[in-house]
Amino acid sequence: xxxxxxxxxxxxxxxxxxxxxxxxxxxxxxxxxxxxxxxxxxxxxxxxxxxxxxxxxxxxxxxxxxxxxxxxxxxxxxxxxxxxxxxxxxxxxxxxxxxxxxxxxxxxxxxxxxxxxxxxxxxxxxxxxxxxxxxxxxxxxxxxxxxxxxxxxxxxxxxx
Length: 160
Known about the structure:
Helix content is about 20%, strand content about 25%. By secondary structure, the chain is an alpha/beta fold.
């Protein structure tokens, strides 16, 4: 009986922490999600490069429609980005000309409607007609044609 009450209180406290965005550790969040089966979907099912926790209730502010997106070449893998972090083509990161480092951005393919959330960790792209460079993993996840090098996207910024 004592264990049951303790477990119930623990789950209740975790629920409060989730609702107040206090839990930031991804592993704890997954544990909570597995433990509290009856709760509504609080998490986006996507792995985020920064290992941050994103809630389904997060709001995004429209930034730009009909933006051209491309992706990093494999030769940049392992190199330092402008922010000082090492670039990894298997993470969900992006380069943008103006947005501050650490900004979370939702990028939606306008043709397929698929979207991905990335973190701005670098400056670029340095091609005038392009708005954002995505990591290869993020690009391929939302691309309709995997052999294309660019696509039209909508960019939305996470409201803090």
